[in-house]
Design brief:
Bound molecules: flavin-adenine dinucleotide
Strand content: 15-25%
Radius of gyration: 21 Å
CATH architecture of the domain at 4-41 and 173-251 and 361-410: 3-Layer(bba) Sandwich
Number of strands: 22
Structural class: alpha/beta
Helix content: 25-40%
Distance between the termini: 25 Å
Number of helices: 14
Shape: globular
């Protein structure tokens, strides 16, 4: 069989966008996707509420990115998220903490390489701040014991897409589906996990889990960093030791979203600081509909602890008990239904999104190095320019690596 010019592994935001860019250049490609659907960490939940919900990525973080043109062309409706943050602190709600925790933890590029939790403790924040620290770290994709104060600040110094967050009237998935995936759907092979990449010869050989072999001139790998860390794809020969070591230095912790539907809205816009779940958000922001949905956003050990309960009913019960304690029993009284999405249990994702782990240093740059002009690496975790852990950041890496790959073809 004639080799494919380019094979892409993974049909998330990065893989889809890479396919789209190659098609624009008139270059043929095939996108191998392990799961039975494309989109990766983008997904849409319909029918639970009278508006669609985002199973994964939900907020557009800043308007100044390569998505701007797609949003404009497609007429996608977005709304600035103006919702307020309420801290659950010492048994009550407050908008103002006695000490500014965010200021103490953010923009600290000169700090020692300590975790959010250790650094806050060193700065004199007591146990009463513990779950507020978890909320701040969770927003950045991490357990507070693992996120580096220093490297998080260093990496975010390069952030340039804007500081405001926006919600989609429809979903983030719809934007990517309509503007990007629609152009490459026929190139996607679903249910095709690649388990081996052999780049010894002039052509790269890809083997899927059924043993089927595909040949390509160049390969773009866009799988989550957890998949590379676990060695789910065998590289022959093994990747350079420094690159394999760099994969391990990038963080990605467990993640879960739980949508809770209620008869009435008894809750604040955003709740920060719960011991069971450190962050809850009102899902109706930016949507057209009447239903009341609160989303519990769990990261790290909180996501693990809820997953260990073993059933969606028990997970919902645990969250309702916490909300009942905050709102004098109103949660259980108004509860209608729950929907749980455990991203850690997804066999080809296994967590939330990458973050600046203690000790990360230059790992993203090393991890993203092309190998032998035949293997290229993209995906949110490979973004060393500040936009890791976002959809637009994943797409940026695709654009960079497609350019590198095309330069390599001319060389
Ligand atoms: C709960 C949650 C909330 C988030 N919220 C936001 C947000 O509000 N805003 C934002 O910008 N970002 C958010 N993100 C992050 C965002 O979703 C990701 O950064 C982005 O979607 C990652 O795209 P990607 O292409 O790098 O990876 P992915 O979307 O993970 O795509 C990789 C693909 O590779 C496939 N794959 C894995 N192994 C193999 C294999 N062996 N062979 C073939 N295919 C394989 C996977 O199935 C997957 O489809 C969130 C993520 C999560 C989980």
């Amino acid at each position: 069989m004639k080799p494919l010019p380019i094979a892409i592994i993974g049909a998330g935001a990065a893989g889809l966008y890479a396919g789209y860019l190659l098609r624009q250049q008139g270059i043929d490609c095939r996108i191998f996707e392990a799961a039975g659907r494309y989109g990766g960490r983008l997904g849409k939940l319909e029918g639970f509420a009278d508006y669609p919900l985002d199973l994964g990525a939900e907020w557009l973080h800043g308007k100044k990115s390569l998505l701007k043109a797609f949003i404009k062309q497609s007429g996608t409706q977005i709304t600035k998220d103006r919702s307020e943050e309420w801290w659950w602190f010492q048994g009550g709600f407050t908008e103002d903490l006695p000490r500014d925790l965010e200021a103490a933890l953010e923009d600290q590029a000169g700090a020692p390489d300590l975790s959010y939790l250790d650094y806050a403790t060193q700065q004199g924040f007591g146990p009463e701040y513990r779950y507020l620290i978890e909320m701040l770290a969770g927003d950045l994709g991490a357990d507070a014991r693992h996120l580096s104060v220093k490297w998080n600040a260093v990496e975010f110094e390069n952030w340039h897409s804007g500081s405001k967050d926006y919600k989609f009237r429809q979903t983030y998935f719809d934007l990517i589906d309509t503007c990007i995936a629609a152009h490459v759907r026929d190139a996607i092979l679903l249910d095709t996990p690649i388990v081996r990449v052999d780049y010894r010869g002039a052509q790269v050989q890809l083997t899927d889990r059924t043993g089927q072999v595909y040949t390509a001139e160049q390969v773009l790998i866009t799988v989550p960093i957890t998949v590379l860390q676990a060695g789910d794809i065998e590289f022959v020969p093994p990747l350079p030791a420094a690159q394999a070591e760099a994969f391990q230095r990038i963080g990605m912790d467990p993640a879960m979203k739980v949508f809770l539907k209620f008869r009435e809205r008894f809750y604040h816009d955003n709740i920060a600081g719960g011991q069971i779940c450190a962050a809850y958000a009102d899902e109706s922001v930016g949507k057209k509909g009447q239903d009341h949905v609160l989303m519990a956003f769990l990261m790290g050990h909180q996501a693990e602890a809820l997953a260990a309960l073993g059933s969606d009913e028990l997970i919902a019960e645990a969250l309702l008990a916490e909300l009942d304690a905050m709102y004098a029993g109103r949660a259980s009284a108004a509860f209608l239904a729950a929907h749980v999405i455990d991203w850690t249990a997804h066999p080809f994702i296994r967590g939330g999104y990458s973050y600046s782990k203690v000790g990360i240093g230059d790992a993203r740059r090393v991890a993203a190095q092309p190998v032998a002009n035949r293997l290229f690496f993209a995906g949110e975790a490979m973004n060393g320019r500040g936009h890791h852990q976002t959809v637009h950041g994943a797409m940026e890496t695709a654009a960079e690596q497609v350019a590198a790959l095309l330069r390599g073809r001319l060389a």
